[in-house]
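Summary for the steering committee. The consortium agreed at its last meeting that each partner would contribute one worked example illustrating the joint modelling workflow. Our contribution is presented below. We chose a case with several input lines so that the handling of multiple components could be demonstrated. No manual editing was applied between input and output; the record is shown as generated.
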Amino acid sequence: MRSARAMERGASEGGFVLALVVFMLFAIAVASATGYLVVSSEFMLGRHSRDGAEALTVARAGLERFVSETMGVLPDTTTYALGNGVAVVTTRRVYEEDGQTHIYYVRSEGTVDDIFTPGTPARRVVGAYATHHWRPVEHHAAVMIGADALSVEGGGQAHGIDYSTALDCAEGGGPRIVGAIARLSVTGQSPSDIQGSPPTRTWAGGWSAISDSIGVRWDVISDPNFPVDFENTLPSFGALPADSFPVIRYTGWVNASFSGRGVLLVDGVFDPNSSFSWDGIVLARHIDDAAQGQIDGMLVAGLEEPNMYSSVGLSIDVKYHACNVYAASESLSYLELMPHTVHEVN
Amino acid sequence: MGGGGRGGFTLVETLIALVISSFLVVLVSHAFLVQNGFYSLQTLRVGVQDNTRAATELVAREVRNVPRDGVVVAGSRTLTIRSPIVVGTVCNRQGAAQVDVMTEGGEAAVPVDEVAGVALRNDSTWEYGIRSWPALDGNDNQSANNCAANGADTVGARDDFHRLVGMNALFPGAVVEGDVLMLFRETTFTIRTSQLDSTTLALFRADYGEAPVEFATGIDTTAHFEYRTSAGTYADTVLAADLSTVDVVRIVAESRKPPATGGADDVRFGWSVNVPLRNVRDEGP
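What follows is the complete predicted structure of the assembly.
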């Protein structure tokens, strides 16, 4: 009865409060919608700006990582997941400076996806030019030891005569290099033990003179975080292509009695015995005083100069083999950014 | 029942209704006006902030890419910079004056109207030469073949190779194969009285040899540029001899707009951006 009266009075009296309320609600709705649009567009602008900046950072980081980590054969395309984005790094050779160095254009495209606009990620591209040290190892001598005195004895040899021929590779049968190098003195039991042009040479200067001269980044490649092909293990060489010269890194005291090919990095003490045989390059932080075995290529030791023994007697037989050294050297090839060439492409 | 049949309102009822409705109308109107004023103010603030941030972002985007020795004028209200359009390597040399270069996108990627000149990289810096694009464009379709003969990988990218001329006049005897060249633009940013509203300042941008274009109006008098030199301190102005030491550009912008309805204070928004010149350092990226 009560509600019927109320309805009857509402219908008969009409009124404007309802209309006012509706109007106010409409005004509030319009204001809210406008406010939302303004805020959301601001939010989108801010987000796109942030994504763009992040994409640029990703692109630069990708470029830097590629240049610092890549060793050996340059891949055409490399992809890195970095933070919230992806960097795709591509390379193109633009000039062959000489047989040892090439110039590459390195391009890094950074993209950052946005969950609100998945089809149109933020994208930035940076480019740079880099020198590719294709065969970085300098062929100074068959044997280089960062010690005061080196004596080749007990049947050991250090021959800077190239034992490879043009049939082995294009550079085979090349000129002779120095037989053996140490800081202050190099001696052999007989003249035939050390041969080359000249047979011996002393390398005066600071303790880092030898390691600085050979062209490899010892501090980089000996870093345990730097990726190499094999770590503390030998590959099955039979399963590898015949022209493959992998980089193998051993740490600690390495009493080597194995055979293989490639680049042997010893971040410790290289102590080969008579059954050791290697085709390529051996780089060692230290070398034991009584090294034996055979190397067809090159031996460089005492890279954390001075060597643990200041006077080293070697019974190892090292014969310079240009083709093996070149092939191994290619496995150590690296990129070096040309200063001031990093630029934003878009 | 008799009263209900007659209908109508008494005078008192009508007066009371009028008073109440008037009060309601005044209340709602006031609320609406306040809301409207607040909305206008917010819109103005957003506009001012957009104006400031867009202006600084536009300047920052160009400044960020400045290469070594790319700051030409570093004044409190004038900044002139050189920034790369494309960077390329000389992959072939034809005599002393002509070189074939590889740049990403080739000639098609070069906004030719913006080219102010070409720069040659040496070990420590860039050597700049002012030259318009028509005086640089060699337009030789043999560039890719020439570069391929020197070891360049041109597969699928023949259009990236093109010829530049006039090198000997700019860098006598200096350009050789393997050198890096940069086509650059020279841009001047100035803060001065607006052409659109003489009561306020504006940010102008000018390409080399072109008239300045106003692109942000409503800049306040406090807006200016600052520069950090290798000494680590900021200064409003850097002398020509010290320009190579500039490694950070700070853009200090303050926008100001009078409110639509008079009486209230101007709406202001201050904003500053520090732009490190990463490319001026020696270590690369």
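The helical segments of chain A are 2-13, 17-69, 209-213, 218-221, 322-331. The mean pLDDT of chain A is 88.
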